[in-house]
Amino acid sequence: MSFLKRLFGPKPVIAKSRYITIEDVKSAPFTKKTVGSGYSMRPDVYYIVASVELGNTTTKCILTATNLNTSRSYLLDKTVKMTRDIREPKKDEKVFGSTVWGVELTKESVSEMVKNTILESVKKAKIDIDKDLDFVVRSTGVTAGFASPEEVGQLIISLANGCLEAGIPPRKMAPALSIDNLPERLQEFSLLEKVVFDGAVVSVIPPTGKEVVANEMEGELVTAGIKLGAKWTNIDFRNPCISLDFGTTLAGRIVNNQEPYARTIGNFCGLAGAVSDALIRGTEKVDQRGGAALDLYRKDILKNADWKKAQLNAQRVHELIDIGKVPENRSRFGTVPVDPEAAYEAGTTLIGCDVGENGDKLDELTILGHEIFEEDGMNTLFATLDHVSALIVKRLIDEAFDEGVVEDGSILGVTGRAGITGRKPQLIMEHTNGRLKDCIFVSDALAMGAAIMARCMNSIGTPHIPIGGRQGGPCILGPRRKIQKKKDDKWID
């Protein structure tokens, strides 16, 4: 390590989203190679996917275009709405659940919000749903606040209805049955005739048996998305790896080094951005029900902050935060429904972040946030948030090491508004430096995960630029074909 790195610490590697226009997608016929090697004579083909996300704080439609020659994914548009702005239920509508912050949801109100968000996004991106859009992936973190599978089912139906009302045909929300069902321009990239989608996403299979945490899909998507986002960097974020998504709720995975399919040996759950939001409400400058740190964040918010005081403040905040292995007798941790017994039977360790028990001390965080704001001001309060998030990462990683679920050579990937903004990446690096092989920060990993999930479901791969498999290793297409052939032969026998 160089003298400067020893003195100042390593510089965070941040994979920021890059934009492209639909005109560029349609007009650039060839991929430029590295300097001096000329041009590829294989025409560029882009796979356009809509990630429709309903979260506790934000609702998004993010349109991505992935170059299938390079496996690099670009943003066509990112439309973000505040979930608290979902209209109130009408008299004849049935409330089936609410967000972590108590915003009531009906099938009709959710569908309307989703439809409007999609239509605004495709209009800004100037894309045609029928001609340009290839696939749609729906996801939600709101299930963390739900009480029953029935409520979750109603939410999933509402998301689907919103997509249909926006004009998205059902065939663009389900995997193709054969290569002939794909658009002609994609068929040469699809490996459907060689391998089928068997549930593994970028060579990782989910925990076996029952679902162990309500937002399992979020963890799956962000892990895949960080792998795809890493293609913009020199970090090989493949197995073994650790992913952390700092949305309102916490999601993420710990993945081992097995081939061809790695196992999910750890899952993260609980509260993340909700911690920062609760503190910010103490300023009384945001909505007391759905207000978020996002409402007040700006690029110069950390100017003139007292970082030493912020560090002390963060230690006070962490006195209210419980981080550890989820006990077997808990059905929720950090408000998120969990099944520790099923997890531990499947060999998956659940590690959670809570404020009190199931968020019952979030109000105390708001009071503490008020004290910090009154004594130190807004700039230092935001610096406090950076230290708070960095300490959450430190404690989660410490717990994972204590539980023995971090394999040698593991790389950490962080995404989400409460994990990559401000000085959080630098502070997180200070806490994890030397413990892990590397660390990467990726914006919009959930949307990138949707892009790669859509490809996996349709077996659209790039064997020459593998996203799955081990760090430094080749594509796992061959071993996958062998596994699936054995299963087919067994079924025939």
TrEMBL record:
Per its record, how is this protein called by name?
Methanogenesis marker 14 protein
Q: NCBIfam families, per this entry?
A: methan_mark_14 (TIGR03285)
Q: What phylogenetic lineage does the species belong to?
A: Archaea, Methanobacteriati, Methanobacteriota, Methanomada group, Methanobacteria
Pfam families documented for this protein: DUF2114 (PF09887)
Q: Which superkingdom is the protein from?
A: Archaea
